Amino acid sequence: MKLIGSYTSPFVRKISVILLEKGIVFEFVNDAPYGPDSQVSRHNPLGKVPTLIDDEQQAWFDSSIIAQFLELRGDAPAMLPQDDAWLALHIRQVERLADGVSDCASIIVREKLRAPEQQSTEVLTRHREKILRGLDQLEAIAAQGRLLNNGTLNLADIATGCMIGYINLRHVVPNWCVDRPALIKLAEQLFQRESFARTAPPAA
Ligand SMILES: N[C@@H](CCC(=O)N[C@@H](CS)C(=O)NCC(=O)O)C(=O)O
């Protein structure tokens, strides 16, 4: 199994963490998707990472689909409850919420790479507001301890940890932790895991 990805992508980190937690052996193929030499579009027409190539050479893309593929393979531990489809769906929605915050953070990072006179204040403000609302909802969910931080690592925990790692790396919302104690607790616990330590992005 090959994982095509870049070291800084929160979505790639999400899949790397799942593979490590499940003990699935994989080869990491480093590919910077925005670079001129990227090969990822040979496997994924959208040209995005992560893209996973399975042992039958089938390409899987979009981290939530790859995560579902890995669950369907059945490798333990499961990252979603096996006996409660509704609970699993709620957890997947939280996963997508955390991914959505990562998407917004990535849009801000890309926008800030443009020349200052080409940057859109409207785009920056809009996506910053989405991030803040997303973080507030994730904080409330983490405080409840049912869908996040419930004692059994799940897909939503992993996506949230990778999102927090990314906004820390890119300094997108430097003071995100003010008044968000449940998310801090979750991040502290996740970052102690070997899977998170081994996938920490290089300093920007
Ligand atoms: N929804 C996708 C998002 C993946 C994504 O946006 N990846 C970025 C890197 S963080 C990428 O490959 N961007 C290249 C591009 O958009 O051309 C997922 O969860 O896998």
From TrEMBL:
- Give UniProt keywords alphabetically: Transferase
Q: What sequence ranges are listed for the domain GST N-terminal?
A: 1-78
Residue stretches spanning the membrane: none
A molecular function annotated in GO for this UniProt entry is: maleylacetoacetate isomerase activity
Q: What's any GO biological process attached to this entry?
A: L-phenylalanine catabolic process
- Pfam families, per the entry: GST_C_2, GST_N_2
Q: Which CDD domains match?
A: GST_C_6 (cd03205)
Hydrolase keyword on record: no
Classification via InterPro entries: Glutathione-S-Trfase_C-like (IPR010987), Glutathione-S-Trfase_C_sf (IPR036282), Glutathione_S-Trfase_N (IPR004045), Thioredoxin-like_sf (IPR036249)
Record bears the keyword ATP-binding? no
Per UniProt, residues of the GST C-terminal domain are 84-204
Name the UniProt record assigns to this protein: Glutathione S-transferase
